[in-house]
Design a protein that fits this description.
Two copies of one chain form a homodimer. With about 375 residues, the first copy, chain A, is of the alpha/beta class. Helix content of chain A is about 40%, strand content about 15%.
């Protein structure tokens, strides 16, 4: 289960996207998690009024983030503002947390799920850590007992992502609490990346912040919830014992995140009604239904996401390899992500992102293709 | 000369700024290098039109930076575009370069000048490296022979900053070339941070990129040249042999820099006439003259910057300690940076930033204060 030779290469995402872009036909691209829907109106107006502002407002914000943004995050997450570090996307927050796990000198192994978002093993390897992957249950739930068996004094951190990319599973609060105990029993930390927290279709997602533990780091961002992956505004909520080191590292790596983006997000947080988020969820629900209905017609296995915006599909005799994904691009006109990019457990599967209004057309193309095959 | 116990604490800047802000009197703040002048008009218009754009333009740009921005940087610096990584300010570019120096397993010591911008030793320590500081010559020139003597197989990287903060010295191309040779002779890299390249008052600044060497990394940013320290748009120009690793680390730490800021800078690069930069330099020249004339009247020693926008001043019997800086805030109404923040070599001095239109008033206050003392 250990793959310490996991290269920290550029993720496969870019290779698939480039292949699809170069294809000599129309392709429905369901590769990246780049929202295709509109950001909140107040995001745009916030950026516009910032552009018009005083020169002083173009200078360094506080390293840990603009005051009103940090305050709004703390209020929404119901945590002490001092624990919040605004970062260059959740990516940087995860990097800070994983670096702190290594700096504690209490193990150098990261326990990850299989399948897993490829940036986590990438970061672990970059930091000089080892990676152990524990396959999830058949239905996508995290295998708590398997994690417990795999954890040891070598474990520096357990890393979870819920709602999960790529499985779409929303982990139960109990499972996350048990894994916090597993981490604690092995003098390790727990990192929970909740970047899809606004995309919970079950109504039962609960943040790991509700555990109120001093060995759990929670990260998130506005990349998905506000449809602004390019803005790079995320944050980490660190326990008191870790937040000073996280802030110091943040300052030494980036000084601070980009201020126009932070100002725009702060404005959007103030002025965006819940209806914006509901409407995006409704759109995604419709897309998921249309896509999975057509997959039914194609006779494929698939996951119905409880959260996030990805569907995993499995076509008989057609595993989720890069070459099969390329074949689907060329011959069916649909681009997905090879399941093998996420580990071994789902290497029979292909992940389709719902960030397109042509999801139904894509599924119809897949049905036609596999029907003829 | 080695200070491996150099904490990677929050720099002193913030403490001084907070002290000045809390003072019970008017204070001319000459602490930070935050420009107080206007950004280019095209920076604002670029940001405004971006705010109005397609939702797709709000998503991830290429990890290494927006295509037109990278192209413009490569053209201006006359380097192959593949060597350019757009980063979250020069800070991230310096971090990437210093991390790569450690990853080569060819020494773990960073050779720095004394005085030195405090973020360099901070980053070195965070990366697990040791720091050796070589005092500059009395006139601010880098001590090439001293660096040569200090360099060894342990040396991972020599780090330079020219035009220099805090001394204001513009290093000669010959000196930088010799230090590149010193680095090469010790299987080390040379990093040259040229973030003040637009603030050369001598006309003889030459970029280290003109050396065209495969062991030199050059970093810069638009923070100072466009008066946008809060935007966080910088870049590194890496040798072919290092650029892939730098890109991988950039992707794993930050994914990419913030796109609104990159788009605004790209527009400003296209549309800003040379007159903008000339006019800022003229303003700074006037401020430097007014400030140093008044220091003359105060009988103080001072540096006349060849570049960047800082003046170091020395008042007899009044060394550049934190407590003396606090005394000047309280009793003279002028805030500077203690020279001791930059090392031992200039700990008798206080650094004053010219990022205020009240530089002359500040110097008059200093003259009055030291006259009465």
């Amino acid at each position: 289960m250990t793959d310490s030779d996991d290269a920290y290469d550029e993720p496969l995402f870019y290779r698939v996207i480039q292949y699809a872009a170069a294809a000599d036909r129309d392709v429905v691209t369901m590769v990246s998690g780049n929202p295709d829907w509109d950001p909140p109106t107040a995001l745009r107006t916030g950026l516009e009024s910032y552009a018009d502002g005083d020169p002083q407002d173009f200078q360094y914000p506080p390293s840990e983030g603009l005051g009103d943004l940090r305050e709004a995050i703390a209020a929404r997450r119901d945590v002490d503002e001092d624990r919040v570090v605004v970062t260059n996307g959740a990516a940087e927050a995860n990097y800070l947390a994983m670096a702190e796990a290594m700096e504690r000198d209490a193990g150098a192994e990261f326990l990850l799920t299989d399948p897993v978002y490829p940036y986590y093993p990438g970061k672990a390897t970059m930091l000089g850590g080892a990676v152990t992957r524990v396959p999830v249950h058949e239905d996508g739930r995290v295998d708590v007992a398997g994690m417990r068996d795999a954890a040891s004094a070598e474990t520096a951190m357990i890393v979870l992502n819920t709602p999960n990319n790529p499985t779409g599973t929303v982990y139960s609060r109990d499972a996350v609490a048990e894994l916090a105990d597993v981490a604690a029993a092995n003098d390790a930390l727990l990192l929970v990346d909740e970047v899809y927290d606004h995309f919970d279709f079950t109504g039962r997602f609960e943040s790991a912040l509700t555990l109120d533990r001093d060995d759990v780091v929670v990260t998130s961002s506005f990349s998905k919830s506000m449809a602004i992956t390019g803005f790079r505004v995320g944050y980490g909520v660190f326990p008191d014992s870790l937040v000073d080191d996280a802030r110091a590292r943040h300052m030494l790596v980036n000084v601070t995140g980009s201020r126009p983006a932070q100002a725009a997000v702060a404005n959007a947080l103030r002025e965006t009604p819940p209806a914006y988020y509901e409407s995006v969820r409704d759109t995604l629900r419709e897309r998921i239904d249309a896509f999975t209905d057509a997959l039914d017609a194609a006779g494929a296995d698939y996951t119905t996401p409880e959260g996030a915006f990805y569907v995993l599909a499995r076509f008989e005799g057609f595993p989720g390899t890069m070459s099969n994904v390329q074949q689907l691009i060329d011959e069916a006109g649909v681009a997905g992500m090879p399941g093998e990019a996420f580990g071994d457990a789902y290497d029979d599967w292909i992940r389709f992102s719902l960030c397109t209004d042509r999801a139904k057309a894509a599924a119809d193309r897949l049905a036609t293709y596999f029907d003829r095959r």
